[in-house]
Amino acid sequence: MKYSKRILTLGESLTIAISSLARDLKSQGKDVLSFSAGEPDFDTPKMIKDEAIRAINSGFTKYTQVSGIPELRLAISEKLKNENKLNYDADEIIVSNGAKHSLFNVFSALIDKDDEVIIPSPYWVTYPELVNYFGGKNIFIETDEGTDFKIIPMQLKQKITPKTKIIVLTSPSNPTGMIYSKEELEAIYDVIKDTNIIIISDEIYEKLVYDNITFTSPGSINDDMLNRTITINGLSKSVAMTGWRIGYAASKDKKLIKLLNNLQSQSTSNINSITQKASIFGLNGDTKMDIDGFVSAFMNRRNLAYELINNIHLLDTKLPQGAFYLFINIKEVNPDSMAFCKDLLEKEGVALVPGIAFGMDGYVRFSFACGEEQIKLGVNRIDRYISNLS
Ligand code: PMP
Ligand code: GLU
């Protein structure tokens, strides 16, 4: 069969590939501890599940509006106003099958051939793949530990050209957990304010922040930034709803929302009707206690994993401010992150994601979205692996 050139540009998501490999090995009876999954291990809060059951029993099982039922979009609009200081109306929001789907649609609506998209590196695996898929050009900005893996204005200035269309910001970051402060976002704004550059702000980890750090949405810093920002978020990480598939995009550009609606009306139509009803409870504050519980458990796990990893000779990691990943520097053990991960999986049955998947070799991503016992066991095995090498 002759496949389209477009589809052949696309690789499999490495984060998903490694999590699936670990799952397969486990189901074959192998003793595998996986720290590769990018999803909370908690169950979805009961209130959300009960509402889903109610929706089924009441027959809420038909097609809905393509962009989402009005009460859901209203709940998202209220959430964005109250929690993120983002003034989006319900008709400036479109609900899709996960934030990944929102990103796919938004990139599709914005990228023409050779448009340049600036992506700070390390980056979440999906962005550059989508940019390639839609014929755009990835322009990476390499960051390092010195700036907590965040871009600085000077770097951004150097990468901007007349072809720059979009800058992708992910805060808290996957894979580093770092968060841009309001002042840092203002400095980024100063660099782009005289251009037409669009910001795509991926805020999927926004609820998972630690140490009383305040999360700032890029679109909240001023009106011009709000107008040029497309805010992407969802419920996968905040209320442990990865399997339900809900994400959303918000933009002050109503025409963009209409175009996204057209695209979705010709592809997936509305997301699952039951998920829509249930998700309202993940947005309106009713599950705040559940979310607080998740965040506090994640913070304890982060502290534990951070301390244990840094106690291992030759490994070093920064304290993440948000999300549920440690981005561990392995350069003194093996700068080839893929080789390190393969060897570690073979010898000790520990699955991590190589930094190269996120555009940065010499690092591995360790997800602490699992129980403390598993963290202790896994880190012990990593320690033993490194000791046996020398
Ligand atoms: N953005 C980032 C940075 C992520 O890590 C993920 C996790 N899959 C997503 C978006 C997409 O999440 P989902 O499609 O489950 O909403
Ligand atoms: N975002 C998660 C991760 O980075 C889930 C996997 C994926 O969607 O790529 O592991």
Regions with little confidence, pLDDT below 50 for 5+ residues: none
- Tally of strands: 13
Q: From N to C, what is the helix and strand string?
A: HHEHHEHEHEHEHEHEEHHHEEHEEEH
Domains (count): 2
Mean of pLDDT: 96
Query: Rg to the nearest angstrom?
Result: 21 Å
Assign the CATH architecture of the largest domain.
Answer: 3-Layer(aba) Sandwich
N→C terminal distance: 50 Å
Q: Helix tally? A: 14
Morphology call: globular
Oligomer: single chain
Tell me about the biggest sheet?
Answer: 7 strands, mixed
CATH class of the largest domain: Alpha Beta
Q: Which homologous superfamily in CATH is the superfamily of the largest domain?
A: Type I PLP-dependent aspartate aminotransferase-like (Major domain)
Strand content is: 5-15%
Helical percentage: 40-55%
- Reported by name, the CATH topology of the largest domain is Aspartate Aminotransferase, domain 2
Q: Which strand order does the major sheet show?
A: 2-8-7-6-5-3-4
Ligand types:
4'-deoxy-4'-aminopyridoxal-5'-phosphate, glutamic acid
